[in-house]
Structure formats: C-alpha cells, structure tokens
C-alpha cells in the first residue's frame, strides 16, 4: 500500500501535463472546431433572449410535465419544434481564468482519486506497467466516462462525444505515464 501523500509529485505533475495537453488540443489542434455550429440569424435569437431578460441557467424546451408531454397539445409542441436544451452563461466578457483554475483543480482531483485507487492496490516498487494500467483506467474513466451522457440525454452529436472521449484517453494516458514514471521505488 502507498499513501497518497507519497504520490503528491505524480498527482501535481500529471495535472500540469493534462492542463498543457488540453490547451494544445483546444488551441492548436483543429478537431474540436466543429463541435458547435453557428445559429442562423444568431443576432435575432440573441435579441429575443435578451428582450426576455432570461437569466443565466439551463433550460429545456418545450418545458412540461410528463402528463403534459402525453397530451395532444404536448405532442404537438414536440412535433412542431424546436426541441432542445439551452445553457446561458452570465453576460459579460469571456474570461478564461476561472475555467482554467477549475480545470486544473479537477485534474488534481483526478490524480488524487487515481493515487488513492493505485495506492490501495499496488505497493512501492511495483513496475511501470501495472501502475500504468490501474492509474490509466481510473483517469480515463474519470476524464471520459461521463462524455456519452451528453449524447444520450442532451442530444450532443456522437462525433463530439467521441472527440471528448479521445481527449479523455489522451489525458488518462498522460496521467498513467506520469504515475508509472514517478511511482515510489522500494
């Protein structure tokens, strides 16, 4: 058994590597550029939302109870469309500081959980590959395991989900490699 405190370096370093890799994925590589399409007549829609003073939050439309969904009127709303989910963020300048901090903290948390599982299963001196397998599995499931939920329940395209899952695989491999490299020796 290896204590989490003995794994602070791979936890922090893997978070740094994942942070850098995700920056490269989203700022240099181009495969995420097609994740979101531009709305036709975007300004008209933005004006309509602004005119209604809709606060930041998540919205489902048409919004109704299960009983209302089963009614002829509810069925007609779904048939007529549009049907969707909408996430509105607070108005103001788009800043990346807070999301970057949150992403880094999340990556540290992934490392902590991977360290916990690996530390309970493996001992000091365990060779690289067993460490890689355990940590990689935990990290991949954490980074990518929830991605299909957006396609299943929110209607996100499966191609976008597959791209996020690929990212999760990359981040899981970086985390696994870092832990395998820095795993405590005897």
Considering the chains and any ligands shown, give keywords for the structure.
two-stranded antiparallel sheet; 186 residues; single chain; 2 strands; 5% strand; 2 domains; elongated; mainly alpha
Q: Helix count, per DSSP?
A: 8
Q: Given the C-alpha coordinates, what overall shape results?
A: elongated
Largest sheet: 2 strands, antiparallel
Structural class: mainly alpha
Order of helices and strands: HHEHHEHHHH
- What's the mean pLDDT score? 96
Radius of gyration computed on alpha carbons = 22 Å
Query: Percent of residues in helical segments?
Result: 55-70%
**How many domains make up the coordinates?**
2
Hey, roughly how much beta strand do the residues contain?
5-15%
Q: Count of DSSP E strands?
A: 2
Unreliable runs: none
Q: What spatial order of strands do you see in the largest sheet?
A: 1-2
Distance between the termini: 12 Å
Report what the structure shows:
The chain is mainly alpha-helical. It folds into two domains: 121 residues, no CATH class; 47 residues, no CATH class. It has eight helices and two strands, in the order H-H-E-H-H-E-H-H-H-H. A two-stranded antiparallel ribbon has the order 1-2. The protein is elongated, with a radius of gyration of 22 Å. The N and C termini lie close together (12 Å).
Provide a quick synopsis of the model.
The chain has 186 residues and is mostly helical.
List the helices and strands and how they pair.
Elements: H1 8-27, H2 42-51, E1 57-61, H3 66-70, H4 72-80, E2 84-88, H5 97-121, H6 128-144, H7 147-154, H8 158-182
Antiparallel strand pairs: 1-2
């Amino acid at each position: 058994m290896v204590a989490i405190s003995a794994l602070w370096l791979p936890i922090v370093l893997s978070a740094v590597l994942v942070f850098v890799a995700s920056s490269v994925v989203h700022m240099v590589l181009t495969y995420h550029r097609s994740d979101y399409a531009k709305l036709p007549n975007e300004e008209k829609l933005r004006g309509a939302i602004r005119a209604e003073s809709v606060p930041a939050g998540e919205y489902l439309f048409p919004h109704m109870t299960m009983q209302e969904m089963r009614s002829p009127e509810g069925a007609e709303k779904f048939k007529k469309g549009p049907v969707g989910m909408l996430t509105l963020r607070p108005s103001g300048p788009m800043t990346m500081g807070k999301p970057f901090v949150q992403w880094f903290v999340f990556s540290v948390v992934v490392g902590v959980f991977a360290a916990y599982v690996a530390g309970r299963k493996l001992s000091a001196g365990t060779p690289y590959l067993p460490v890689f397998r355990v940590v990689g599995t935990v990290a991949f499931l954490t980074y990518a395991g929830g991605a299909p939920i957006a396609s299943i329940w929110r209607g996100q395209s499966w191609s976008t989900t597959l791209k996020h899952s690929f990212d999760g695989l990359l981040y899981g491999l970086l985390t696994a490699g870092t832990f395998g490299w820095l795993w405590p020796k005897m």
